[in-house]
Amino acid sequence: MQTIKLNTDAEMPMVGFGVFQMAPDVGYRLIDTASSYKNESAVGAAIRRSGIPREKLFVTTKVFVDAMGERKTREACLRSLDALGLDYLDLYLIHMPYGDVFGAWRALEALVREGRLRAIGVSNFQSDRILDLCQNVEIRPAIDQLELHPFYQRADELALLSELGICPQAWAPFAEGLNGLFSNPVLAAIAAAHGKSVAQVALRWNLQRGVPVLPKSTHRNRMVENFAVQAFTLTEAEMAQIATLDLARPQMFDPRSPAEVRRIYDYLNNPVLTTLQ
């Protein structure tokens, strides 16, 4: 299994499983969940049932906006560890760039020193936020989870992350099918040339940019397909063709949008009436 070395020297699998559907025979070893997904206990139970040794798994979860701040973030992390039934996490992320991020980060740094967290990072932090954070912390993020797919390629942001020694990781690598991704003629032609699916081409494109991916599916055949993307290579010409698809704007979630910020806090105030991505 292909891995990438983080700035903590930990080896993280390049292909993980978003939200979490445990399928040990498929081969996934990177498991990504979050407190806001409301499934950490189920994830922990599935890990125990899998029989896979703990050291063979790379487990990620995230702290949400409602638990930002030094005390609240520490308590949230300990709750997640308890729910998952784990002694430590391989990676713990701040889910969104809102609230008392710096207080939360101090809690994460303390948990690293205590051995509860092997690596810490962020999600949905754009360049200004990630650069500001790095100027004011002792431990730099190991990961920035971002919306990264052929319609939102973010080359400048990836260059900054590389400069800072931070690994990008792609959530929604298929853009959840928006803009007709699965029927896109450029991607479809490349897929046909390799005898692969459009989904596999989208994943392979990110991997060749050095971006680990978090595909998700509830269908076992697609889980297998999504995992089998490390045995073929896109040509330079094909990578250039995919580069022309960039729309240079978020398709899923824009953390700088006032409407999105309101939606997040509306969810916290009334989760029954508001949905999260």
Jot down its keywords:
TIM Barrel; eight-stranded parallel sheet; 277 residues; 38% helix; two-stranded antiparallel ribbon; alpha/beta
Write the layout of secondary structure elements.
Layout: E1 3-5, E2 11-13, E3 17-18, E4 30-32, H1 40-50, E5 58-63, H2 70-84, E6 91-94, H3 101-113, E7 120-123, H4 127-134, E8 143-147, H5 155-164, E9 167-171, H6 185-194, H7 198-208, E10 213-214, H8 220-227, H9 236-243, H10 258-269
Characterization of the model:
The chain is α/β, with parallel strands linked by helices and 277 residues long. The chain has a single domain (3-269), classed as TIM Barrel (Alpha-Beta Barrel), CATH 3.20.20.100. The chain is 38% helix and 13% strand. The strands form 2 sheets. Strands 3-4-5-6-7-8-9-10 form an 8-stranded parallel β-sheet. Strands 1-2 form a two-stranded antiparallel ribbon. Helix 4 packs parallel to helix 5 (155-164) and helix 6 crosses helix 7 (198-208). It is globular and about 55 Å long. Residues 20-24 have low confidence and may be disordered.
